[in-house]
Amino acid sequence: MDNNQEDMSQQIGFSDEFTYNDQPIKYEITKDNTVRMYVEDCALALGVTQSKVLKDQTISTTVRWERVYEDLVGIERIPNAGDLKSLSAETKKNIRDELKDMTITETQLYLWSFKVGSEQGKQFRNWLATIVLPNLRQHGIYVTGMESMSAEEVKSVTDQRIERYILRKFGIGIRRELTDIIQKVIKPAPFEGYKYGIYTNVVYRVLFGMDCKPYKESLGLAIKDSLRDSVSTTEINNITKAEDFMGNLIMSGMTDVSLLENLMGNWFINVNKGV
Question: Of the residues 58, 95, 179, 241, which has the fewest C-beta atoms closer than 10 A?
Answer without folding.
Answer: 58
